[in-house]
Structure formats: structure tokens, C-alpha cells
Amino acid sequence: MRGRSDGGQSKRPILLLCVMVVCLCLLFLYFSGSNGQAGSAALEYGTKFSRSLGWGSDGDGDDGSEESIFGTGDADDVKLKSFPVCDDRHSELIPCLDRNLIYQMRMKLDLNLMEHYERHCPPPERRLNCLIPPPHGYKVPIKWPKSRDIVWKANIPHTHLAHEKSDQNWMIDAGEKIKFPGGGTHFHHGADKYIANIANMLKFKDNNINNEGMLRTVLDVGCGVASFGGYLLSSNVIAMSLAPNDVHQNQIQFALERGIPAYLGVLGTKRLPYPSRSFELAHCSRCRIDWLQRDGILLLELDRLLRPGGYFAYSSPEAYAQDEEDRRIWKKMSSLVERMCWKIAEKRNQTVIWVKPLNNDCYRSRAPGTNPPLCKRGDDPDSVWGVQMEACITPYPEQMHKDGGTGLAPWPARLTTPPPRLADLYVTADTFEKDTEMWQQRVDNYWRLLKPKIKPDTIRNIMDMKANFGSFAAALKEKDVWVMNVVPHDGPSTLKIIYDRGLIGSTHDWCEAFSTYPRTYDLLHAWTVFSDLDKRGCSAEDLLLEMDRIVRPSGFIIVRDKDTVIEFIKKYLNALHWEAVTTVDAESSPESEENEMIFIIRKKLWQPGGSQDPNPK
């Protein structure tokens, strides 16, 4: 018995040693995500590495540290890092609109209020710290204007809408390409004819929807693949095409692949990320929205967004059908809009167009206790980020009421004419004009630096990540591009100035992911965005990964920031599959930061485990 016991004891150290070796191997495999292979390492959550070095914080605000997350710019400040590649199932990941996250975190959301289609961002410990791979066979997108009508199927390998909407001409599966005939649920024979019909109903000259430059910005709710917005562009009208990531998945992805302005969003419980009085026309064609719910709160959100004298074009069965349920809805909706002081501008066939009043007279003449009520005096209609909708009417400011309208110039003069709402921000016309001139010079310089790498049609979709007054976008007026102007949620409400210039954009917080699909923009412009993150204590590494998610393979990034920021980003180029195009000192001006530089980057076209083409055609 004693001999057997001794033999068992001699084997235990060997067994323990084997277990330790296996554990060490597993730990090595877990943390070695730099080989570019999809797998468990590629699904590492959070930014543990960055936070361990003090680059970011777990919170949204300042972490109390005075030390810059970018260090001094010395080469030894930060260790280089490789990023794993996300699993293929994340190739279309939208971090703040990820329904899998909702299920995993067991969020209790009201589906009837569309809360599951609103933004719900992952906490820092659940953020995917990996590169979003392109789908197999991805190609450089077809160039505008051809892209309005045809895209590569490999880039968005989804054809269910082509079959589901085959009788409505949304899109056609055409082998290796997908074609867009310009149809929609209510305009099977083409958006161009439908748009001309709306202009005719409103008695606009020559049936031109732009109304001699007075109709410029449009909100298309439930836009489908955005053919309505795509066909407006030829009339010098720009639409914010809006739809959720719902049963018609990828509709906004198709819109952006086509080169049409679009945004993922929903009329749910929170205000849309646009300021008050931003659009001359709102449009809904079979958008399947219950406008009567919650005392008309969704229609009142449109009212907040429409300018004085703005229109709502509504094409839906309730506007023309004769069955009992549709008549009931039409009667209630007519009563609601009458109490909102809207009037019918025209009703024809399948479409009704209402018009909003030019001043507050109608609101003031309503009987006491009329619903919906006017919003409370202290309500800020331009405060939108994460703000709950309210079932109330937003009256006009006193000056706008006296003027009987916005006082905006017609397009294209509107782009450079100081708008009246500058006074809300205590900004003078002289400051506005100097800002416009300064950014024209800056953008001209950008294009000189980009010239060796681009052709006239290389760039179409642009995002200005900190747009201020929109002068960067205004400087591109002669280019065949459009710009998503992003304004920080915690800064001055300059987005209303951007809309008053005839441009479009959104409020956003760059500590979170943007509401768009991967690979949707050709050029990102980041003016002191990283320095702003430094002040708030958010992760610069997370922002780099987000920018990589948004920009297309072969797309460009222009960073205009302090030299320490530029040196920080350079350490990540290889890990992100980016290449430096050029680095130069910024032009000197009173508005420039000290040691400000311009760094132009190009994202390489790569496939997981495959070759890279740094200079695709």
C-alpha cells in the first residue's frame, strides 16, 4: 500500500505542470490577436489596453487627470498595438444600433414606441476592440453619378428588398450588380415624375421642386433606399433620408453606397438629432408611422423641424382610401393638424400636402385648453441629444413671428449669406464671413495636398466631424460631393446655422459610435476632434476604430490638430491598415491652435488574411 501511495504522489507534479502549460498556451492564444485571424481574440471586448495606459476612461466625462492622453509626442510614450479582426458576422456592425446588444443586456424596451430602433450604446467594457472586415469580394464603390442607379452586390450582399419590393421598382438584382430604377412604394414609375407632381400641386414655377431656390432642405421619413432623395439632388434640393435599421435592413446602407445623403434614425421617443426649423419640406410615402399615437407626438416632432410655411407631403392610403378604418384615421388626423394650425395646400389622388403657418397668430387665437398645447416657455427646441419628445407645439421666436418667415436667401445665395439666427449665438455677420473665407482657403489647400491621389470623382460622401458653422462644406460647393456636418452635442448649437445655409448634418457625441453602417464615407475631416476628446477623458483609441469603421477602403482622413495628436495617430497606422499621405504645418491664422498640423491618411483596401492594395483605382 505504501509503494502505491508514493507512485501516485510522484505523478502529481507532472500533472500540475501539464495543466499549467495548457493554461499558459490558452492565455497566449487569447491575448495574441495581432495575427489578423477572426476568432476569439478578434472578439476581445473593450479597450482594456488603452485604459491601462491612461489613454481613455470608463466614464463619459473628465476623469480628473490633468495629463494629456497624447503624452508629449515622443516615440517612447505609447507602445505600438495591433488590432484583431472582428468576426465576419460583425462586417455590418453599428455599435449603438445593435439589436444583439439589446438582447444580451436584457434591456426592457417598449417595442410599440420603437425604442429598440433608437440608440443604445455598449458600455466601455462591451465595445468590440477589433477592425470591421469588408465583405468577401468587396470592391471600390462605383462612382457618382452612376452610383445613383447601380452598385456592386458584393459590397452589400443583400437582395431581399429586390424580391420583397419587386412590384414597386425599389431595386433589381442584376448579377454582380444591383440596379435602382428609381421606384418607391408610392411612385412605382419613378421618383422624378412623383417629385414633379408634388411641385405641380404646390404650383411651383416649371414644376421645379426647388421653388426658385426657396425650397432647399427636405426630411424624408421612412425613405426606403432613398430614391426620392437621390432624384431631388438634380433640382439643387438636398434631403436627409431617414429610416431605422428595421425589417427593411440595409436600406440606409444602400442609400449611402449610392452616394445619397442618409441617416439611421427613427421617430420613437427621443427628438431627432436636428435643430428646430431646419426643413422646408417633410415627406412620408407609405412610411407606416402611426401619426395619431401619444396625442400626435410624432407629427409634433415634424412640426418642430419644419420652417415657417414649411410643407408636409403625405402619400398614404388614409389620404385617399374609402374603407371605414382609413376614413376614421383621416378624420382624426385632419382634426389634429387643424388644431396644430396646419392647412391643406393641395390634395390630389394619393397625396395630401399640408402647410405650416408663417407666424404665431393662429396659435394665439386657439381656444384656451386646446390640445396639443404650446411648449413651455423654457423649452429649448434646439436641444436634441438624448432629449425626450414632447406632445406640444413649438411656437416661433418673437422676431421670426414679426418677420413672418425665416428671412433666408434663396439657394445658392443662402450658402454664403449670414442667416438671421446667427444673432441667437451672438455671432456677427463679419465673423461668419471671415469663417467662410478662412475655410475656403483651408479646403483649397486640402485639395492641393490630395491632388496626387484623387480624381474628380474619387470622393462623394464626406463627413465633417466638427463642422462649426459649416464653412468646410460651403467651400466644397463646386465639387460633386455632399457633406454630413456633425456638431458636438455639448457645444454651441451651430447646426441650425448649417441648415440655414442650405446644408445638412446631425448632432453627435464622439465618445460614442455614429449612426451609420461601416464603409459609408469617402472622406472624414477631423478638426481638433481628438483634442476635444482629451478634455473629456474619452478613448482616442475607440475613436480611431470608429473612424476606421466609417471610412471606406481606399477612403481618406484629414486630421487637423496639435502635433502631439498627429504623432499619437502615426503609431497606429500599421495596426489600422492606414498609410500616411502627407503631413504639413497648418496655415497660420488667429483661429489656429498652437502647433496645429494637417495629417492626411488613406485607408488601404484589405481582406482578412489577404493582400492589401494601398492604391486602388
From TrEMBL:
Keywords, comma-separated and alphabetical: Glycoprotein, Membrane, Methyltransferase, Signal-anchor, Transferase, Transmembrane, Transmembrane helix
SUPFAM superfamilies linked: S-adenosyl-L-methionine-dependent methyltransferases
Database matches in InterPro entries: Put_SAM_MeTrfase, SAM-dependent_MTases_sf
Keyword Zinc found: no
EC number: 2.1.1.-
Transmembrane segments: 12-31
Subcellular location per the Swiss-Prot or TrEMBL entry: Golgi apparatus membrane; Membrane
Coiled-coil region list: none
Broad enzyme group: transferase
Cellular component, GO annotation: endosome; Golgi membrane; trans-Golgi network
Signal peptide from the UniProt entry: none
Organism superkingdom: Eukaryota
GO MF term set: methyltransferase activity
The UniProt record lists the keyword Transmembrane: yes
GO BP: methylation
Major subcellular site: Golgi
UniProt membrane topology term: Single-pass type II membrane protein
Family membership: Belongs to the methyltransferase superfamily.
Official protein name in the record: Methyltransferase
Source organism phylogeny: Eukaryota, Viridiplantae, Streptophyta, Embryophyta, Tracheophyta
